[in-house]
Request: fold
Amino acid sequence: MIFLYLCTENVHFGISKEREMEKMCRPGRMSVAETIYVAVNVLFVAKYSARIAGGGVLPAALCVLLAIAAYAVLLRWLMPRLPGGDIARRTSSGQIACGVVLLAFAGMATLQYAIDPYGIQVDRWSALHFPIRNLLSGTYPYSACTHLGGYASPFPVWQVLHIPFYLLGNVGLSFFVAAILFLCSCRKVQGREGALAAGLLLCSSVAVWYEAAVRSDLITNMLLLAAIVNYIFPRLSQQWVEKRRWRIACGVGLLASTRIIVLVPVALLLCPYLSRMKLRRQCEVTLLALIVFALTFVPFALWDWQEFYYFQNNPWALQTRQGSLPDFVLFVPLGLFLAWNHGGDARRYYRNTAAMLCVFVLVTFLHNMWQSGNWALFSSSYDITYFTSAIPFCLLAYCVQRRQMCHL
Reply:
Protein backbone atom coordinates (compact mmCIF):
# COMPACT_ATOMS: atom_id res chain seq x y z
CA MET A 1 0.00 0.00 0.00
CA ILE A 2 2.83 2.40 0.84
CA PHE A 3 4.50 1.75 -2.50
CA LEU A 4 1.27 2.27 -4.42
CA TYR A 5 0.80 5.58 -2.57
CA LEU A 6 4.28 6.66 -3.62
CA CYS A 7 3.57 5.69 -7.22
CA THR A 8 0.37 7.74 -7.39
CA GLU A 9 1.21 10.56 -4.99
CA ASN A 10 2.04 13.10 -7.67
CA VAL A 11 -0.11 11.66 -10.45
CA HIS A 12 -1.43 14.39 -12.71
CA PHE A 13 -5.25 14.51 -12.80
CA GLY A 14 -5.96 17.91 -14.30
CA ILE A 15 -3.63 19.69 -11.87
CA SER A 16 -1.45 22.39 -13.38
CA LYS A 17 2.29 21.85 -13.46
CA GLU A 18 2.75 24.94 -11.28
CA ARG A 19 0.50 23.55 -8.52
CA GLU A 20 2.14 20.14 -8.80
CA MET A 21 5.59 21.69 -8.44
CA GLU A 22 4.50 23.86 -5.54
CA LYS A 23 3.23 20.72 -3.84
CA MET A 24 6.60 19.02 -4.25
CA CYS A 25 8.51 22.08 -3.10
CA ARG A 26 7.11 21.93 0.43
CA PRO A 27 9.91 21.65 3.00
CA GLY A 28 10.88 18.05 3.74
CA ARG A 29 8.75 16.61 0.95
CA MET A 30 10.44 14.00 -1.24
CA SER A 31 9.28 13.14 -4.73
CA VAL A 32 8.58 9.59 -5.87
CA ALA A 33 11.86 9.46 -7.81
CA GLU A 34 13.84 10.64 -4.78
CA THR A 35 12.07 8.14 -2.55
CA ILE A 36 12.86 5.25 -4.92
CA TYR A 37 16.49 6.34 -5.19
CA VAL A 38 16.87 6.41 -1.40
CA ALA A 39 14.92 3.17 -0.91
CA VAL A 40 17.05 1.19 -3.39
CA ASN A 41 20.29 2.35 -1.81
CA VAL A 42 19.02 1.77 1.72
CA LEU A 43 18.03 -1.75 0.67
CA PHE A 44 21.67 -2.45 -0.21
CA VAL A 45 22.87 -0.87 3.04
CA ALA A 46 20.42 -3.00 5.03
CA LYS A 47 21.45 -6.24 3.33
CA TYR A 48 25.21 -5.87 3.54
CA SER A 49 25.43 -4.05 6.87
CA ALA A 50 23.48 -6.96 8.38
CA ARG A 51 26.07 -9.36 6.96
CA ILE A 52 29.01 -7.29 8.17
CA ALA A 53 27.42 -6.93 11.60
CA GLY A 54 27.05 -10.71 11.77
CA GLY A 55 23.28 -10.56 12.02
CA GLY A 56 23.27 -7.85 14.69
CA VAL A 57 19.99 -5.93 14.42
CA LEU A 58 21.05 -2.71 16.15
CA PRO A 59 24.23 -2.05 14.11
CA ALA A 60 22.37 -2.77 10.89
CA ALA A 61 19.44 -0.55 11.91
CA LEU A 62 21.86 2.27 12.77
CA CYS A 63 23.52 1.97 9.35
CA VAL A 64 20.13 2.11 7.65
CA LEU A 65 19.06 5.23 9.57
CA LEU A 66 22.37 6.94 8.81
CA ALA A 67 22.02 6.06 5.13
CA ILE A 68 18.48 7.48 4.97
CA ALA A 69 19.62 10.69 6.62
CA ALA A 70 22.71 10.99 4.41
CA TYR A 71 20.79 10.53 1.15
CA ALA A 72 18.00 12.88 2.25
CA VAL A 73 20.54 15.59 3.11
CA LEU A 74 22.39 15.03 -0.19
CA LEU A 75 19.21 15.43 -2.22
CA ARG A 76 18.21 18.59 -0.35
CA TRP A 77 21.75 20.01 -0.62
CA LEU A 78 21.81 19.55 -4.39
CA MET A 79 18.41 21.17 -4.89
CA PRO A 80 19.48 24.86 -5.02
CA ARG A 81 22.63 24.00 -6.96
CA LEU A 82 20.77 23.13 -10.12
CA PRO A 83 19.88 25.76 -12.76
CA GLY A 84 18.73 28.99 -11.21
CA GLY A 85 20.63 28.67 -7.95
CA ASP A 86 23.41 31.11 -7.12
CA ILE A 87 25.94 28.41 -6.25
CA ALA A 88 25.30 26.65 -9.57
CA ARG A 89 26.73 29.65 -11.39
CA ARG A 90 29.99 29.56 -9.54
CA THR A 91 32.69 27.96 -11.64
CA SER A 92 34.57 26.70 -8.62
CA SER A 93 31.57 24.69 -7.40
CA GLY A 94 31.21 23.03 -10.79
CA GLN A 95 34.90 22.20 -10.90
CA ILE A 96 34.76 20.65 -7.44
CA ALA A 97 31.69 18.60 -8.35
CA CYS A 98 33.35 17.43 -11.58
CA GLY A 99 36.48 16.50 -9.65
CA VAL A 100 34.44 14.48 -7.14
CA VAL A 101 32.74 12.55 -9.97
CA LEU A 102 36.07 11.80 -11.65
CA LEU A 103 37.61 10.67 -8.38
CA ALA A 104 34.60 8.45 -7.73
CA PHE A 105 34.96 6.84 -11.16
CA ALA A 106 38.66 6.28 -10.48
CA GLY A 107 37.74 4.71 -7.15
CA MET A 108 35.20 2.41 -8.80
CA ALA A 109 37.76 1.31 -11.39
CA THR A 110 40.36 0.68 -8.67
CA LEU A 111 37.87 -1.33 -6.63
CA GLN A 112 36.84 -3.30 -9.69
CA TYR A 113 40.42 -4.38 -10.37
CA ALA A 114 41.21 -4.90 -6.69
CA ILE A 115 38.50 -7.55 -6.36
CA ASP A 116 39.14 -10.99 -7.82
CA PRO A 117 36.11 -11.55 -10.09
CA TYR A 118 36.44 -15.33 -9.67
CA GLY A 119 36.07 -14.93 -5.91
CA ILE A 120 32.68 -13.20 -5.90
CA GLN A 121 29.26 -14.88 -5.87
CA VAL A 122 27.96 -12.75 -8.73
CA ASP A 123 28.29 -14.20 -12.21
CA ARG A 124 26.92 -11.44 -14.44
CA TRP A 125 30.43 -10.62 -15.68
CA SER A 126 31.27 -14.25 -16.49
CA ALA A 127 27.85 -14.66 -18.13
CA LEU A 128 29.27 -12.30 -20.76
CA HIS A 129 32.96 -13.14 -20.63
CA PHE A 130 32.77 -16.87 -21.34
CA PRO A 131 30.13 -16.78 -24.12
CA ILE A 132 32.18 -14.09 -25.89
CA ARG A 133 35.30 -16.24 -25.45
CA ASN A 134 33.43 -19.13 -27.05
CA LEU A 135 32.15 -16.88 -29.83
CA LEU A 136 35.61 -15.62 -30.76
CA SER A 137 37.13 -19.10 -30.60
CA GLY A 138 34.49 -20.63 -32.86
CA THR A 139 32.63 -22.50 -30.11
CA TYR A 140 28.87 -22.20 -29.69
CA PRO A 141 28.42 -19.31 -27.18
CA TYR A 142 25.38 -20.63 -25.33
CA SER A 143 27.17 -23.78 -24.25
CA ALA A 144 29.41 -21.68 -21.98
CA CYS A 145 29.14 -21.81 -18.19
CA THR A 146 29.77 -18.98 -15.76
CA HIS A 147 32.53 -19.12 -13.16
CA LEU A 148 29.89 -20.29 -10.63
CA GLY A 149 28.93 -23.26 -12.79
CA GLY A 150 25.65 -21.93 -14.11
CA TYR A 151 24.78 -21.34 -17.74
CA ALA A 152 24.82 -17.97 -19.46
CA SER A 153 22.46 -16.61 -22.09
CA PRO A 154 23.34 -13.02 -22.99
CA PHE A 155 21.41 -11.69 -25.95
CA PRO A 156 23.31 -11.28 -29.26
CA VAL A 157 23.54 -7.48 -29.48
CA TRP A 158 24.73 -7.29 -25.88
CA GLN A 159 27.48 -9.83 -26.63
CA VAL A 160 28.66 -7.90 -29.69
CA LEU A 161 28.74 -4.59 -27.79
CA HIS A 162 30.98 -6.18 -25.14
CA ILE A 163 33.54 -7.69 -27.50
CA PRO A 164 35.85 -4.61 -27.26
CA PHE A 165 35.78 -4.77 -23.47
CA TYR A 166 36.46 -8.51 -23.53
CA LEU A 167 39.52 -7.83 -25.69
CA LEU A 168 40.63 -5.29 -23.07
CA GLY A 169 40.38 -8.09 -20.51
CA ASN A 170 37.45 -6.74 -18.48
CA VAL A 171 33.82 -6.69 -19.64
CA GLY A 172 33.04 -4.58 -16.56
CA LEU A 173 34.69 -1.56 -18.21
CA SER A 174 31.49 -1.10 -20.21
CA PHE A 175 29.99 0.46 -17.08
CA PHE A 176 32.24 3.50 -17.34
CA VAL A 177 31.47 4.03 -21.03
CA ALA A 178 27.73 3.78 -20.36
CA ALA A 179 28.02 6.14 -17.37
CA ILE A 180 29.89 8.71 -19.47
CA LEU A 181 27.27 8.49 -22.24
CA PHE A 182 24.54 8.89 -19.63
CA LEU A 183 26.16 12.00 -18.12
CA CYS A 184 26.81 13.42 -21.60
CA SER A 185 23.11 13.06 -22.36
CA CYS A 186 22.34 14.89 -19.10
CA ARG A 187 24.77 17.64 -20.11
CA LYS A 188 23.09 17.95 -23.51
CA VAL A 189 19.48 17.94 -22.26
CA GLN A 190 19.45 18.93 -18.58
CA GLY A 191 22.41 21.31 -18.75
CA ARG A 192 25.77 21.42 -17.00
CA GLU A 193 24.38 21.63 -13.47
CA GLY A 194 21.92 18.83 -14.14
CA ALA A 195 24.74 16.61 -15.41
CA LEU A 196 26.87 17.34 -12.33
CA ALA A 197 23.94 16.61 -10.02
CA ALA A 198 23.25 13.33 -11.83
CA GLY A 199 26.94 12.47 -11.62
CA LEU A 200 27.14 13.21 -7.90
CA LEU A 201 24.02 11.15 -7.17
CA LEU A 202 25.25 8.31 -9.38
CA CYS A 203 28.59 8.21 -7.58
CA SER A 204 26.91 8.51 -4.18
CA SER A 205 24.82 5.41 -4.77
CA VAL A 206 25.86 2.36 -2.75
CA ALA A 207 23.95 0.20 -5.22
CA VAL A 208 25.91 1.61 -8.17
CA TRP A 209 29.23 1.09 -6.37
CA TYR A 210 28.23 -2.52 -5.73
CA GLU A 211 27.27 -3.05 -9.38
CA ALA A 212 30.55 -1.54 -10.58
CA ALA A 213 32.62 -3.54 -8.08
CA VAL A 214 31.19 -6.92 -9.16
CA ARG A 215 31.37 -5.95 -12.87
CA SER A 216 27.62 -6.35 -13.29
CA ASP A 217 26.24 -5.39 -16.68
CA LEU A 218 22.68 -4.68 -15.48
CA ILE A 219 23.33 -1.08 -14.46
CA THR A 220 25.36 -0.65 -17.66
CA ASN A 221 22.39 -1.74 -19.75
CA MET A 222 20.02 0.67 -18.00
CA LEU A 223 22.45 3.60 -18.13
CA LEU A 224 22.87 3.08 -21.87
CA LEU A 225 19.10 2.87 -22.38
CA ALA A 226 18.50 5.95 -20.21
CA ALA A 227 21.10 7.90 -22.21
CA ILE A 228 19.40 7.00 -25.52
CA VAL A 229 15.94 7.89 -24.20
CA ASN A 230 17.23 11.14 -22.70
CA TYR A 231 18.71 12.19 -26.05
CA ILE A 232 15.53 11.58 -28.04
CA PHE A 233 12.87 12.63 -25.52
CA PRO A 234 12.97 16.41 -26.33
CA ARG A 235 12.37 15.56 -30.00
CA LEU A 236 9.38 13.29 -29.41
CA SER A 237 6.09 14.23 -31.01
CA GLN A 238 3.46 12.27 -32.90
CA GLN A 239 4.72 13.61 -36.22
CA TRP A 240 8.38 12.90 -35.33
CA VAL A 241 7.62 9.32 -34.29
CA GLU A 242 5.48 8.54 -37.36
CA LYS A 243 8.07 10.01 -39.72
CA ARG A 244 10.84 7.87 -38.21
CA ARG A 245 8.75 4.83 -37.33
CA TRP A 246 10.91 2.39 -39.35
CA ARG A 247 14.12 3.51 -37.67
CA ILE A 248 12.44 3.48 -34.27
CA ALA A 249 11.14 -0.06 -34.85
CA CYS A 250 14.63 -1.24 -35.82
CA GLY A 251 16.09 0.50 -32.76
CA VAL A 252 13.54 -1.15 -30.46
CA GLY A 253 14.37 -4.56 -31.92
CA LEU A 254 18.09 -4.02 -31.35
CA LEU A 255 17.56 -2.70 -27.82
CA ALA A 256 15.38 -5.71 -27.01
CA SER A 257 18.35 -7.84 -28.04
CA THR A 258 20.38 -6.46 -25.14
CA ARG A 259 18.03 -7.37 -22.27
CA ILE A 260 14.28 -8.04 -22.14
CA ILE A 261 13.68 -5.62 -19.25
CA VAL A 262 14.59 -2.64 -21.48
CA LEU A 263 11.18 -3.08 -23.11
CA VAL A 264 9.54 -1.72 -19.95
CA PRO A 265 10.91 1.85 -20.33
CA VAL A 266 10.59 1.65 -24.13
CA ALA A 267 6.94 0.57 -23.94
CA LEU A 268 6.08 3.36 -21.49
CA LEU A 269 7.77 5.84 -23.82
CA LEU A 270 6.29 4.81 -27.16
CA CYS A 271 2.89 3.34 -26.27
CA PRO A 272 1.00 6.68 -26.37
CA TYR A 273 2.44 7.53 -29.80
CA LEU A 274 1.94 4.03 -31.21
CA SER A 275 -1.69 3.95 -30.08
CA ARG A 276 -2.45 7.11 -32.07
CA MET A 277 -1.18 5.59 -35.31
CA LYS A 278 -3.42 3.90 -37.83
CA LEU A 279 -3.92 0.21 -37.13
CA ARG A 280 -1.93 -0.77 -40.21
CA ARG A 281 1.07 1.27 -39.10
CA GLN A 282 0.82 -0.13 -35.59
CA CYS A 283 1.04 -3.65 -36.96
CA GLU A 284 3.88 -2.77 -39.34
CA VAL A 285 5.98 -1.13 -36.62
CA THR A 286 5.39 -3.94 -34.14
CA LEU A 287 6.12 -6.62 -36.74
CA LEU A 288 9.32 -4.90 -37.89
CA ALA A 289 10.58 -4.63 -34.30
CA LEU A 290 9.90 -8.34 -33.76
CA ILE A 291 11.62 -9.24 -37.05
CA VAL A 292 14.74 -7.23 -36.21
CA PHE A 293 14.82 -8.79 -32.74
CA ALA A 294 14.47 -12.29 -34.24
CA LEU A 295 17.10 -11.64 -36.91
CA THR A 296 19.75 -11.00 -34.25
CA PHE A 297 19.29 -14.64 -33.15
CA VAL A 298 19.33 -16.17 -36.65
CA PRO A 299 23.13 -16.71 -36.80
CA PHE A 300 22.99 -18.71 -33.55
CA ALA A 301 19.99 -20.73 -34.76
CA LEU A 302 21.82 -21.61 -37.99
CA TRP A 303 24.99 -22.36 -36.05
CA ASP A 304 23.46 -25.15 -33.95
CA TRP A 305 19.70 -25.56 -34.03
CA GLN A 306 19.63 -28.35 -31.46
CA GLU A 307 21.57 -26.29 -28.92
CA PHE A 308 19.68 -23.13 -29.82
CA TYR A 309 16.12 -24.39 -29.52
CA TYR A 310 16.10 -27.56 -27.46
CA PHE A 311 18.92 -26.96 -24.99
CA GLN A 312 17.73 -26.04 -21.49
CA ASN A 313 19.83 -22.89 -21.68
CA ASN A 314 18.63 -21.39 -24.95
CA PRO A 315 19.20 -17.62 -25.35
CA TRP A 316 15.99 -16.53 -23.61
CA ALA A 317 15.82 -19.19 -20.88
CA LEU A 318 17.27 -17.09 -18.06
CA GLN A 319 15.55 -13.82 -18.96
CA THR A 320 12.03 -15.24 -19.26
CA ARG A 321 11.83 -17.73 -16.41
CA GLN A 322 11.17 -15.16 -13.66
CA GLY A 323 7.79 -13.82 -14.72
CA SER A 324 4.41 -15.56 -14.85
CA LEU A 325 1.05 -14.97 -16.50
CA PRO A 326 -0.71 -13.78 -13.30
CA ASP A 327 2.02 -11.17 -12.86
CA PHE A 328 1.42 -9.78 -16.33
CA VAL A 329 -2.28 -9.42 -15.56
CA LEU A 330 -1.12 -6.70 -13.16
CA PHE A 331 1.80 -5.38 -15.23
CA VAL A 332 -0.13 -4.68 -18.43
CA PRO A 333 -2.88 -2.39 -17.03
CA LEU A 334 -0.41 -0.67 -14.69
CA GLY A 335 2.01 -0.15 -17.56
CA LEU A 336 -0.72 1.27 -19.78
CA PHE A 337 -1.82 3.62 -17.00
CA LEU A 338 1.73 4.88 -16.39
CA ALA A 339 2.37 5.20 -20.14
CA TRP A 340 -0.67 7.40 -20.67
CA ASN A 341 -0.13 9.28 -17.42
CA HIS A 342 3.15 10.95 -18.35
CA GLY A 343 1.53 12.82 -21.23
CA GLY A 344 4.86 13.67 -22.86
CA ASP A 345 6.20 15.32 -19.68
CA ALA A 346 9.81 14.22 -19.13
CA ARG A 347 9.73 14.25 -15.33
CA ARG A 348 6.56 12.17 -15.16
CA TYR A 349 7.89 9.71 -17.73
CA TYR A 350 11.16 9.12 -15.87
CA ARG A 351 9.31 8.88 -12.54
CA ASN A 352 6.74 6.45 -13.94
CA THR A 353 9.46 4.33 -15.51
CA ALA A 354 11.41 4.07 -12.26
CA ALA A 355 8.20 3.12 -10.42
CA MET A 356 7.24 0.52 -13.04
CA LEU A 357 10.68 -1.12 -12.94
CA CYS A 358 10.51 -1.39 -9.15
CA VAL A 359 6.97 -2.78 -9.26
CA PHE A 360 8.06 -5.29 -11.90
CA VAL A 361 10.85 -6.61 -9.67
CA LEU A 362 8.85 -6.39 -6.43
CA VAL A 363 5.81 -8.28 -7.73
CA THR A 364 8.05 -10.98 -9.24
CA PHE A 365 9.82 -11.39 -5.90
CA LEU A 366 6.54 -11.53 -3.97
CA HIS A 367 5.14 -14.12 -6.37
CA ASN A 368 8.26 -16.28 -6.00
CA MET A 369 8.16 -15.85 -2.21
CA TRP A 370 4.55 -16.98 -2.11
CA GLN A 371 5.30 -20.03 -4.26
CA SER A 372 8.46 -21.09 -2.41
CA GLY A 373 7.49 -20.05 1.10
CA ASN A 374 10.85 -18.26 1.43
CA TRP A 375 10.06 -14.71 2.57
CA ALA A 376 13.68 -13.74 3.33
CA LEU A 377 14.32 -10.91 0.86
CA PHE A 378 18.05 -10.93 1.60
CA SER A 379 18.50 -14.64 0.87
CA SER A 380 20.46 -15.75 -2.20
CA SER A 381 17.17 -16.67 -3.91
CA TYR A 382 16.40 -13.01 -4.63
CA ASP A 383 18.78 -10.73 -6.47
CA ILE A 384 18.04 -7.24 -5.14
CA THR A 385 20.39 -5.73 -7.73
CA TYR A 386 17.44 -5.77 -10.16
CA PHE A 387 16.11 -2.76 -8.25
CA THR A 388 19.13 -0.75 -9.46
CA SER A 389 17.54 -0.72 -12.92
CA ALA A 390 15.40 2.19 -11.68
CA ILE A 391 18.29 4.40 -10.55
CA PRO A 392 19.19 6.06 -13.91
CA PHE A 393 15.56 7.07 -14.40
CA CYS A 394 15.34 8.36 -10.81
CA LEU A 395 18.32 10.61 -11.51
CA LEU A 396 16.79 11.94 -14.73
CA ALA A 397 13.46 12.59 -12.99
CA TYR A 398 15.27 14.43 -10.20
CA CYS A 399 17.21 16.68 -12.58
CA VAL A 400 14.18 17.47 -14.75
CA GLN A 401 12.07 18.19 -11.68
CA ARG A 402 14.56 20.66 -10.22
CA ARG A 403 15.01 22.31 -13.60
CA GLN A 404 11.23 22.78 -13.92
CA MET A 405 11.05 24.18 -10.35
CA CYS A 406 13.62 26.82 -11.20
CA HIS A 407 11.56 28.00 -14.16
CA LEU A 408 8.30 28.46 -12.23
In short: Residues 1-16, 83-88 have pLDDT under 50 and may be disordered. The chain is about 70% helix and 0% strand. The radius of gyration is 21 Å.
